[in-house]
Design goal:
By secondary structure, the protein is mainly alpha-helical. Helices cover about 65% and strands about 0% of the residues. It is built from twelve helices and two strands. Strands 1-2 form a two-stranded antiparallel ribbon. β1 (about 30) and β2 form a beta hairpin. The longest helix has about 35 residues, at about 75-105. The chain is globular, with a radius of gyration of 22 Å. It holds the Pfam family MerR_1. One of its GO terms (molecular function) is DNA binding.
Length: about 250
């Protein structure tokens, strides 16, 4: 298939396919003397895999590393993709329900508690995301995930409520200076909270903040509380770490 045919089949742009070729992510089976890219069925299988990873938030650089690894197992990857997508669908269904209830609440048809307003915002972790990161070499994993998985449901509910409360408070002050007293008090609360579940040095805390911006999955989740929150937290966490790491 020619590049335009592939683009039409998949629903992506020709420019995107050209970019994938340029960075060595998806190299066509052959290129004719006239310069036309020709894609094989194997290329299409690889493209499908790329798009699955992309849908789950993996950056292109990491996708390239994963699928070019000699140990990459396509069947294993598809199985894990399915698990992660099912979990993602479950969370989205809950968020859709929350949106619908919020619309009714705004119209005065029902009353929502503060807790109900944030149902579906799950920042603990996708149980299969940890598996995926370990399998494909992503070291930027929240250190508290494993411990969270070992606590009871009631403790987890209390943890998540506290988690969301801190994020909501930080979102309210995200337009202030990261080194302001208010911002630093809020970030200290976040630091102390994280250390009830894990063991974060000041350097690790600062590194975690950087991940909030570097990893689009973290950015997307955090910014649901307020656009720009991930960057604000990154900056405030860096200030906090530098001030205390002396």
């Amino acid at each position: 298939m020619k590049v335009k045919e592939v683009a039409d089949l998949v629903g992506i742009s020709v420019r995107t396919l050209h970019h994938y070729d340029d960075i060595g992510l998806l190299i066509p089976e052959e290129t004719t003397e006239a310069g036309y890219r020709i894609y094989s069925n194997k290329n299409l299988e690889t493209l499908q895999q790329i798009l699955f990873f992309k849908e789950l938030g993996f950056p292109l650089k990491q996708i390239k590393e994963i699928i070019s690894s000699p140990s990459f197992d396509r069947e294993e990857a598809l199985s894990l993709h399915r698990k992660m997508l099912v979990e993602k669908r479950r969370r989205l269904d809950r968020m859709i329900e929350t949106v619908e209830k919020t619309m009714k609440h705004m119209k005065g048809e029902i009353k929502m508690s503060n807790k109900e307003k944030f149902e579906g915002f799950d920042f603990s972790h996708n149980p299969y995301e940890q598996e995926a990161r370990e399998r494909w070499g992503d070291e930027a994993v929240n250190k508290a995930n494993q411990k969270i998985g070992n606590i009871s449901k009631s403790e987890k509910d209390e943890f998540e409520e506290r988690f969301n409360e801190i994020y909501r408070k930080l979102a309210e002050i995200r337009h202030t200076s990261p080194d302001s007293k208010e911002a630093q008090e809020g970030i200290k609360e976040w630091y102390d909270f994280l250390n009830t579940m894990g063991d974060y040095s000041f350097d690790a805390f600062k590194g975690l903040g950087q991940i909030y911006v570097d990893d689009e999955r973290f950015t997307k989740n955090i910014d649901q509380f307020g656009k720009g929150l991930a960057q604000f937290m990154r900056d405030a966490m860096a200030v906090f770490a530098d001030r205390n790491n002396k």
